[in-house]
Amino acid sequence: xxxxxxxxxxxxxxxxxxxxxxxxxxxxxxxxxxxxxxxxxxxxxxxxxxxxxxxxxxxxxxxxxxxxxxxxxxxxxxxxxxxxxxxxxxxxxxxxxxxxxxxxxxxxxxxxxxxxxxxxxxxxxxxxxxxxxxxxxxxxxxxxxxxxxxxxxxxxxxxxxxxxxxxxxxxxxxxxxxxxxxxxxxxxxxxxxxxxxxxxxxxxxxxxxxxxxxxxxxxxxxxxxxxxxxxxxxxxxxxxxxxxxxxxxxxxxxxxxxxxxxxxxxxxxxxxxxxxxxxxxxxxxxxxxxxxxxxxxxxxxxxxxxxxxxxxxxxxxxxxxxxxxxxxxxxxxxxxxxxxxxxxxxxxxxxxxxxxxxxxxxxxxxxxxxxxxxxxxxxxxxxxxxxxxxxxxxxxxxxxxxxxxxxxxxxxxxxxxxxxxxxxxxxxxxxxxxxxxxxxxxxxxxxxxxxxxxxxxxxxxxxxxxxxxxxxxxxxx
Amino acid sequence: xxxxxxxxxxxxxxxxxxxxxxxxxxxxxxxxxxxxxxxxxxxxxxxxxxxxxxxxxxxxxxxxxxxxxxxxxxxxxxxxxxxxxxxxxxxxxxxxxxxxxxxxxxxxxxxxxxxxxxxxxxxxxxxxxxxxxxxxxxxxxxxxxxxxxxxxxxxxxxxxxxxxxxxxxxxxxxxxxxxxxxxxxxxxxxxxxxxxxxxxxxxxxxxxxxxxxxxxxxxxxxxxxxxxxxxxxxxxxxxxxxxxxxxxxxxxxxxxxxxxxxxxxxxxxxxxxxxxxxxxxxxxxxxxxxxxxxxxxx
Lengths: 477, 298
Fold this sequence. Notes:
The complex is a heterodimer. Chain A is mainly alpha-helical. Chain A folds into two domains: 6-193, no CATH class; 198-284 and 364-464, no CATH class. Chain A contains 18 helices and two strands. In chain A, a hairpin with a 3-residue loop joins strand 1 (26-28) and strand 2 (32-36). The mean pLDDT of chain A is 90. By secondary structure, chain B is an alpha/beta fold. Chain B has helices spanning 2-32, 35-45, 57-62, 65-72, 86-99, 111-114, 121-124, 134-143, 147-150, 154-157, 161-171, 190-195, 208-223, 247-256, 283-296; strands at 51-54, 76-78, 104-108, 227-232, 259-262. In chain B, strand 4 (227-232), helix 14 (247-256) and strand 5 form a beta-alpha-beta unit. Classes of the chains: A mainly alpha, B alpha/beta. Chains A and B meet through helix 1, helix 9, helix 17 and helix 18 of A and helix 1 and helix 11 of B.
């Protein structure tokens, strides 16, 4: 059940009301000195039920990963230093097994088969025809991050299984992140939660804007992109270029929209999650882009891949290699397809170039900053083509076709195009104001203007949103 | 918490007022617009022609009401709708048949929109502006129960369509003059012609929901005394489909004793001069086809 489904909006108010009506802590008798936490129990129940709503059997995988990392962390915590490396390796590998089987088995199987058949060996293993458990990459990485934190002694192993189970399965983030760190979320689960008006209002604002990004910007643009991508050879170059630009905006609206909704729902329940996006398309370099895009994943990769490999405290060449491997992992994390791997490589190589040229630390102003934003956006858009297309061949052909002719792109549908223009203009205005002129348009801070703003955005969602549309792009990762 | 809940209640009260007001405005635009919006409104609320044509875009481009009126001596309106099939047309039939009973109903069968499994939600979309009508509300919520709640919002009902309606209100194109028929004047691309016969037959996974409402339409129309004709109109080179693909519809037609006419292997299908693209006849083809169809209807 995703945030854009109508059922969720019927269910969530019930969750909200029951959750806040329940006491935070009740006396647990002699068996439980610290008392029982009804709200945490309720959130676990709600999280598992919402997850089961998608495919009940897959809740067992969520539970298995929770149990494995919970006991793994406690075991690591209790062991002597010199024996920990082998234990963390064992538990981390076991935690990754469901992800590897469900997400990568078919890809590895097919790739090995293609390789072997190219040298005349044809030994085929049957592929798995199972759906990938939704959000598996997200909750696996969150649980794995906790395990590493305990190993690196950044965190103590959590004693309460209930608190830890909620940390892994917390429904606002289990489907598509953000990937929280144990140090951020576990203390919030442990402490007493009281409803704060400001936090609740902030949560609603995030929800509203997230909905707008998802339903009006992303899903509407998706109609154009899907049409062009499905039959790109039939369209002229400029239409393909416009479709690629639209895809960049679509995936931003889709993922940032989801993340904002996740943060918003969590705030309504009294939790603060990490904000996953910070106006990424105003980045002046790819390095900057990764400080603003999918921040929780970038942070995870930095903490558990890049830094353990040596980070930047090593030779230049070794540092470039570390960047390359980190983005290779990022590509593989996104999906079992060569297109994602190439997408990761493009980002990795671009960052290596920036580092070699010193562009990653160079400040820019005025026109030069604008030029850098446009160039970065162009590189990111090119990489998204690989991300979007089903095969590498299609991606290369799409890029080639995009520059095969010049002219004015096709609008396809005037009605839809009117909505694209309105949605893009609104997002651009909001984000450029926050990025470049935070103190301008002060009248927008007036209470009544703000109320009018919220009503207008809500009405635009109902009037222009692609309601009843599909799932989130990142939901399949 | 109290302040928070009160503010939420105020917010939704404001939204409800805006929703109600915009609903009135959109309803006015819809009722006074021309073009396709006008045609749609006419079919649902005003049409009283003897012959009604229903189906997808193929219906709207293939049947010429002017010829039908002339040959049969009856008034005719073409209610074909782009990208739609039985799910939309059954809802329209419900509205239309509450008002009067047409003498002849020609339903153009399209494999994609009347038989194949796909997202039926798309097809109820154009019925949502009419969801104040009890027959429509009941019908739509019988397929999608949640729609009973969602369609309480006028903004939801006119979602996206209000822009189209506004354009149609400004342009005010006349649909009555041509009886809802949308002529096409282009020609099929030479690459498609050179490609010749589609290589393999396309198999269709039948949507039981669509088939059920097709049966309901036939049953209700027959029950009211309307003569029903199901037609598979021409597709370039038969569109890769054989008569077998329509066997379920044919069986349905036979069981209710209605006419089933198919043009899968007709000569019209092989003449590139008659086609706009592989799925649609141009005006020249439509006229030839309409004449031929009238000679076959009993």
